[in-house]
Structures
1.
Amino acid sequence: MRRTIDWADGAIVIIDQTALPAEFRLLELRTVDELVDAVKRLAVRGAPALGAAGALGVALAARMGGDVRADAEVIAHARPTAVNLAWGVERALAKLDEGADAVLAEALAVLTEDEELNKTASRHAADVVLAECPRRPLRLLSHCNAGQLATVGWGSALGVVWHLHERGLVEEVLVDETRPLLQGARLTAWELAQANVPYRVQPDSAAAAAMARGMVDCVLVGADRIAANGDVANKIGTYGLAIAARHHGVPFVVVAPSSTVDTKLADGAGIAIEERDARELTEYAGVPVTPPGAHAFNPAFDVTPYDLVTAVVTEQGRWTPGENR
Ligand code: MRU
């Protein structure tokens, strides 16, 4: 598959994730405003892909001239939770004094590295899963989308599935639909179908019941930010999954490139959690599903305490808190 996000002819080109699975459509983003809008609408999403978006956004701003640092600030704050966005912005911005070409070269390096790092991290994580879970073939549970679409290429948590599937070791993936924006049902299921991996979609609320029935050997998730003590911010519902996994003795494995570790934050309490528009809950496909005027609590992410996590795995292997890398 082509890269989720790339650079071509002076524009950022993304796979429009709002259109999948109905339509595979590319979007060309030619201004910083268009990029910021795409990030806010989740046309490009997932922590590692947002890192690439941040870096390419600065490259776009640098080519256009203007106040690049002010543009960079706007890009870095388009979404608050995934540390990768600001990280990508900072990496590209560090080259600004060397000119627009140097900024672009750095952004393209972020893209190339992303694919390599996720491939390596997910290979290490596949080894962890095989060590933690005796049953073969494996029944895995996925939440949100941590696949190719959430990265430049390959994927993090879903990347583990690709490695294991190549070895014939996957019986099925239970895919949490991931309310309210359905990244699991729309995107993860689409990726699994493309790769011919057996899967079933389930309501998020079925995950604990699936574990209780002994249908899950391992929970695999990505991360948007990992604090220095190992607390993990990821898609809303991840924390509940971790509690259920612990209750049922199911390993809970987090896979992310090390750029997702925010060593500046002591623990998860300091992670900014994005709250999204109430209409994501009060409407379904534009049709109201609540009484008029209903208020909503719509956090996009939650924080899983590290003591519920079996392993955090990066491209450097199993990561433990205190490792400053
Ligand atoms: O709101 P989203 O779709 O950007 O949320 C994405 C997630 O929560 C992913 O699990 C996370 O970014 C890791 S992706 C490799």
2.
Amino acid sequence: TKRNPDQPEFIQAITEVIESVWPFLKANPRFTELSLLDRLVEPERVVIFRVSWIDDAGQVQVNRGYRVQHNSALGPYKGGLRFHPSVNLAILKFLAFEQTLKNSLTTLPIGGGKGGSDFNPKGKSQQEVMRFCQAFITELYRHIGSNTDVPAGDIGVGGREVGYMAGMYKKLTNQADCVFTGKGISFGGSLIRPEATGYGTVYFAKHMLAEKNMTFDGLRVSVSGSGNVAQFAIEKALALGAKVITASDSSGTVIDEDGFTTEKLELLKQIKNVEYGRVSDYATRIGARFEANVRPWHVPVDVALPCATQNELDGDDAKALIKNNVVCVAEGANMPSTLEAVTLFEDNHILFAPGKASNAGGVATSGLEMSQNAMRLSWTQEEVDTRLQEIMQGIHDACVKYGRRDNGSISYVDGANIAGFVKVAEAMLAQGVV
Ligand code: NDP
């Protein structure tokens, strides 16, 4: 706390992990040698830079850009870029720390990083978005590379933005190597990458439900968010027979008791991805209820999938879900549940998966994109999806291995933290104090 004043999200993420691995560390003190914990929570490097660009009115705009290169013990830094007005160092440091453990859980050779800018893409023209992306990469390009640091998308950064940044990177460096994942299919992207985080979250939840001999078929599901992760979580939950009741954005929640259909989901994608519209527009067009400034968690469901942003599910939300007999909560977003909510879920024996485990399918498939690019090959949809499913099963099993309690219940929080920690810690100890 002393070294990181005014960084509550970073402190929150560190606290959760350290508290959860503490009993394991006491039983295995070799993991505390060489000041390992102190080194693990300190990013290897943080770059902060000016991004100036000219808007459509001819005015100069100035934003702040960041890249947190947290840990490279396992491989090149890997993690997304977020463009959102709320972006600051505390949020990016928490995300980069979480990313390090998440990437370790995938078992792929990738380190952890995160970056972005306080730029707000909402309401900007296509030309403004392109000019911003080009200005952003004009500085970031000197800090990244296919063997150094490989960014991807996150909130506010989808295929369009990755394309603009990858194009400018190529122009500046004369290198066509894989320095972004989440690229378009026409220039090296991987099939299933757009779907991977949402699909992976549902695959993970499927294994959690199997612990209670349940399947998604016929279950009521609430999803928050309506962006990349939310859309594909809805798609896979529907494919597995679930009834998805909600979607949301920062202005409110749509509640559709009839449930999503494939056609309704296509309309949501059209409104969010093509028209850059709001969930309220979607509610109007399908004739469903829209609740302004309300989150989805008061709606009775069996499974809740928070897929929007950090700290969007607090203690009161958790109490409402528990009162309504929720069985399983799997995080598609990063740290959507507050510490209080997580404790409530675990104390009430709700199956609860932290994002670093359940949303790791996105970065895992980014790792598969890097492999395909390195081999100059493209795998089929089935090949990538099969590998994604195997990786999610592997992460689930690792969580169960390290998170099984004496009373037989599973703490996915402890399991994910310990399993992710052990691999990074082994690698850091083996590489000495650097
Ligand atoms: P998108 O930008 O595609 O979608 C974000 C969604 O969250 C939008 O519906 C947005 O609504 C909503 N949202 C953003 N901020 C808030 C807020 N303060 N309150 C309520 N809703 C909000 O991002 P992604 O779907 O890619 O990312 C969602 C989450 O998943 C993030 O936590 C991200 O870090 C995480 N994640 C993403 C991965 C990926 O592969 N994309 C991989 C792993 C994790 P609005 O339009 O109103 O802003």
